[in-house]
Design a protein that fits this description.
This protein has 74 residues and is mainly alpha-helical. The protein is rod-shaped and about 70 Å long. The model has no long low-confidence stretch (mean pLDDT 93).
Length: 74
């Protein structure tokens, strides 16, 4: 069973989401909560991707340093 927690957003933002996204059936959202959940998941995915990219760059940098050290030791 999924457990939930509550988050608070400014009332103004809630109303803007409702006017912009919920009240327009083209977007397919039934509630501010449904929209917010998807928006949070998308942003979290963006952050995770950025972190993975950063790790990859660090890994490449370390590999280059190791290669340079090996060359100098030859």
């Amino acid at each position: 069973m999924v457990k939930y927690s509550t988050i608070s957003i400014p009332k103004e933002l809630h109303e803007e989401i409702k006017r912009t996204v919920i009240d327009d059936p083209r977007y397919g959202y039934k509630s501010v909560a449904e929209f917010s959940l998807e928006a949070i998941k998308l942003r979290l995915d963006e952050i995770k991707s950025a972190l993975e990219e950063e790790k990859g760059k660090k890994r490449e940098k370390i590999q280059k340093i190791v290669e340079n050290i090996k060359k100098k030791l030859r």
